Amino acid sequence: MTNITLERNRLFLPALGAIYEKLSPLSWPLVRVTAGLLLVPHGYMKLFGGMEGLIGWFGQIGFEPAALLAWYIALLEFVGGLMLAAGFLTRIVAAQIVGFMAVAAFGIHWGNGFLWTNGGYEYPLMWGAVALAILFRGAGPLSVDARLGREF
């Protein structure tokens, strides 16, 4: 007996088992693509109009060299988000996002408490955890990495 058969037997509505089985291969790409594409607008805003403010803010909070770090974060969000969505060099990008979100959660937002609505660490912690899962799992079969036949 396969796991799918066991799971289907445990469903409240067993008739949905066939649908779940058919759609299951799309679940991981959905997570990876969504995570990547949700980063892109943040990078876009920085790259196309917000770099001066970001560099100034990084300097104010003691992140030096502020300009280099600001460009790194903006490019990670924009280009890295696209790479994550495509599943290209996925683990390298995911590892960088984990680091970025760890700094954001624990170095910047921690003092504001948990809730994101109060500027807390909830949002970067969640995105860091998603990026960590992507780092552990890799891109999956529907990705550029899989097409290339190589990943880190």
List the helices and strands and how they pair.
Elements: H1 3-10, H2 17-23, H3 27-60, H4 66-86, H5 90-109, H6 122-137, H7 144-148
Unreliable stretches (pLDDT < 50, length at least 5) are: none
N-to-C SSE string, H for helix and E for strand:
HHHHHHH
Structural class by secondary-structure content: mainly alpha
> What's the assembly state of these chains?
single chain
Using DSSP, what is the number of strands?
Answer: 0
Largest sheet: none
In round numbers, the mean pLDDT is 94
Indicate how many domains the architecture comprises: 1
Question: Globular, elongated, flat, extended or rod-shaped: what is the shape?
Answer: globular
DSSP helical segment count:
7
- Taking the alpha carbons of the first and last residues, their distance comes to 34 Å
The Cα radius of gyration reads 19 Å
Share of residues in strands? under 5%
How helix-rich are the residues, as a percent range?
over 70%
Summarize the structure.
With 152 residues, this protein is mainly alpha-helical. The chain has seven helices and no strands.
Explain the overall architecture:
This protein has 152 residues and is mainly α. It has one domain. It is 73% helix and 0% strand. The chain has 7 helices and no strands. The chain has helices spanning 3-10, 17-23, 27-60, 66-86, 90-109, 122-137, 144-148. Helix 4 crosses helix 5 and helix 5 runs antiparallel to helix 6 (122-137). It is globular, with a radius of gyration of 19 Å. The two termini are 34 Å apart. The model has no long low-confidence stretch (mean pLDDT 94).
